[in-house]
């Protein structure tokens, strides 16, 4: 679909077509309480899909939006034109801190989020570079995005850790394990669709050994999303039960 129907897919599933890193939906009000009761670890699929920020799958991050940002920052534009530069070039201006494994994104951190909200409520964000650097989230310069957070994610996926160590992987490798795609499908109201060959691919172990491809092509058979009454749900159920038996077929 990314090739045959690019306009529709650009609007509904840009992440799956490698067009962007998605912003995460807001957590539900009860997420902090659920996290305290250990739901992020004991029920990771539900918790991380419902509470992706609280459970750590989505991080507060920012990214430069122009190829010239590095040069503009070098010639002093961050201080002479902070309002425009911190929005266009937050990474180069130091709003967020670069991280090698994040594909051009940097982490946003605030030392005192309560104080930041109070300062921003007074309207201090408009042209105050110091405040923007100290309170990037409150100033609206960052977004919670769904992306992998460890350079080992690809290797871990091949080791089937998305199923063997699900709680850890949904936090460290949400994109590689299919969470970002699941969020995209759910919040863009896109129906789950499998290719015709998905049941045979899934039964051959491709959901684990070739996960990025299968997430995009076979989300139902791999258990990423659930289309009511779809026959491939039975495939996902079979694979889940087989994993619970330790990968052994029934006698």
**Gyration radius, to the nearest Å?**
20 Å
The main β sheet shows up as:
4 strands, antiparallel
Query: What is the tally of helical segments?
Result: 17
* Spans where pLDDT lies below 50 across 5 or more residues: 6-20
Strand order of the largest sheet: 2-3-1-4
Task: Give the mean pLDDT.
Answer: 77
Assess the beta-strand content as a share of residues.
5-15%
- Count all strands and give the number: 4
Give the CA-based shape.
elongated
Calculate the terminal CA-CA distance, rounded to whole Å: 40 Å
Structural class by helix and strand composition: mainly alpha
Order of helices and strands: HHHHEHHHEEHHEHHHHHHHH
- Percent helix, as a range, is 40-55%
Domain ShKT: 62-96, 146-180, 192-225
InterPro entries: ShKT_dom
Protein name: ShKT domain-containing protein
């Amino acid at each position: 679909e990314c090739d045959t129907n690019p306009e529709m897919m650009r609007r509904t599933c840009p992440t799956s077509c490698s067009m962007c890193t998605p912003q995460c939906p807001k957590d539900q009000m009860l997420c902090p309480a659920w996290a305290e009761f250990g739901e992020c670890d004991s029920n990771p699929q539900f918790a991380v899909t419902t509470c992706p920020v609280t459970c750590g799958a989505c991080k507060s991050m920012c990214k430069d939006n122009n190829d010239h940002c590095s040069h503009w920052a070098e010639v002093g534009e961050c201080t002479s034109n902070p309002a425009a530069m911190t929005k266009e070039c937050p990474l180069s201006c130091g709003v967020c801190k670069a991280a090698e494994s994040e594909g051009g994104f940097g982490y946003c951190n605030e030392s005192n989020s309560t104080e930041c909200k109070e300062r921003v409520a007074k309207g201090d964000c408009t042209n105050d570079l110091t405040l923007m650097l100290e309170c990037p989230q409150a100033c609206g310069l960052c977004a919670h995005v769904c992306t992998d957070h460890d350079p080992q994610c690809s290797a871990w996926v091949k080791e089937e850790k998305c199923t063997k160590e699900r709680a850890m992987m949904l936090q460290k490798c949400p994109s590689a394990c299919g969470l970002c795609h699941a969020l995209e499908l759910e919040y863009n109201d896109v129906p789950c669709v499998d290719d015709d060959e998905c049941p045979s691919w899934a039964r051959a172990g491709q959901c684990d050994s070739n996960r990025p491809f299968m997430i995009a092509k076979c989300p139902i058979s791999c258990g990423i999303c659930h289309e009511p009454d779809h026959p491939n749900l039975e495939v996902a159920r079979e694979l889940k039960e087989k994993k619970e038996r330790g990968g052994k077929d029934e006698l």
